[in-house]
Structures are given as C-alpha cells and as structure tokens.
Amino acid sequence: MVLDARAVAGPARTGARARVLVVDDDPDVRRTVVRLLEAEGYLTAEADCKSAVTGCVASGSVDLVLLDVILGADDGFDVLAELRRAGDLPVILLTAREAEADRILGLRLGADDYVAKPFSGPELVARVATVLRRTSKPQPKAPVLDHGDLVIHTAAREVSVSGTRVDTTRKEFDLLAFLASAPKQVFTRDQLLAQVWGSSSAWQDEGTVTEHVRRLRRKLDPDGRHEGWIRTVRGVGYRFDP
After folding, report:
1. pTM metric for this prediction
2. Cα angle at 237 between 201 and 55, to 5 degrees?
C-alpha cells in the first residue's frame, strides 16, 4: 500500500521542490529519510512494496525514487527492472548489503546511484540533489510542435488552431509549449511554477498556474471541443493530451 503521498509546503532552503518517493519496508527508515528530505525543501511520498511503487509512479508525480534493495516479500532489483522497462525515472538504491557484486548489479540494471546503510544524512541529500541535477536538464524544444489541429511554432512563438492564429501572452505561450513538448506527462503546479515561471509556491501562488490554464483553454477552444488538450489530473496537476 502507499503509506503517504503528501506534499509538504515547507521552506525550500535549497530550492528543491522535486518529489522523492521513499521506498522501504521499515517505517523507521522511511520516517528518517522523509525528515531529511523535507528539511531540505523536497516533497515526499512513501511506499513499502512493489505494488505501491507502481501506483505512485503511475501518477506521474514522482521525480526520483529512493529504493531499498530488500522489501520484505519483494526484491528491490525486480522493482528497479520494472521501473527501467517503464521509463528513465531516476533511481537511487538504498542497501545494507556490503557485497560489491550487489552494487554492480544495481548499476547495471539502471540505477543512477546507490547509498549504503547506515548512511549519512548530508550525503544522502547531496546524492539526491546531484542525481536530480544530472537527470533534469531541459531537452531542446522542437521548432514545430504539431499536434493535429493545434500547431505551435516555438521559434516564432506562434500558435494556430485549425489554421487560425491564436494570440497568447508570453507566459501563456511558455506554459503551452512546455506542456505540449512532453505529451501525456503529468506536471504538478509546483513543477510548472519552477519550469515556466522560475519560481515556487513559496514565492508565488499556485493559482497563477490554474488561471493561465483556464485562459489557454478558452483561447484554444472557445467552443469547448478540445478540452482534453490540457487535462486536469485531480490531486496532481496537468498534462497535455494530443
């Protein structure tokens, strides 16, 4: 089961607002790791088994997984292999195993890093920050995002629907282009504030994102025929549906 998927609105002392999924069958370890991460401004979610990990990751609201190799009846390596089959979500292994072969196996299966138990709190946080920084570099946008009736020319900063140009503000265009460049991917309002506005909910109201989405929907489709282009994912955020 998923034990906790809360978003903590504490101060982001390091500017980190990514959500880290902490996976361990020991509740004491989970609590310790969660406290360390939240103290540095990260959002957290918790899971204690393979099915909980799958459900949490499927929501699209996880940016990195801290995965214990031993999960009671489950095998952390199996969970890692499944995550790699599904995509390239960053994974850091937590392990009490000292054997070099286990660490090598984890890296070969696609882990981005590993931390041995007992671990140092500052080292764990530093490794999370390093992996997120290394794996979250923005990809270059395509010059034209063609989604059928909706076409976005990123260089010219022009939007058209069924051949008719749609006027957008600077931030409306930035928001639309960002979402449209990653179809089906769910972004939280916090992530959108960070990526589009270069801000965070500590400094700017999340309602800013909601209002811009509302305006975009009205401009792109005044008649309400293409509501799914920017879809609300309840309790999470928004995704772009071609």
Report:
1. 0.53
2. 120
